[in-house]
Amino acid sequence: MAQTSLNFDPVSKQAYATAAERKQLELEKFGVMAGFLVGLLLAVGSANDFLAALEAPKWVSVAGGVLVVALATSAGLRLSTKLAKRLGWA
Fold first, then answer.
1. 8: alpha, beta or left, given left = phi > 0 and alpha = psi -120 to 50?
2. Separation of first and last alpha carbons in the chain
3. pLDDT band at 13 (very low <50, low <70, confident <90, very high)
4. 72-88, pLDDT tens digit by residue?
5. How many CB atoms lie within 10 A of CB 55?
6. Is the pTM of this model over 0.85?
């Protein structure tokens, strides 16, 4: 009869992260969410109005909105990562 190794430890290896790593991750999550929401506001407001004033086709307005949201989300992640490093969490 073959014996198999059983893992009785229900905690994953990711749960052993240090407190600083958990804080950094939480700050980065917040940065991504905040960047996404700011990007949505900018895309629906400023970018859409600007492209409508230029009488751009609808697909250009949609593509511009997606680009604004992507850029704002990326900026939110970068800013939160820099803040985590400055606070000594990274």
1. alpha
2. 48
3. low
4. 999 999 999 999 999 99
5. 7
6. no
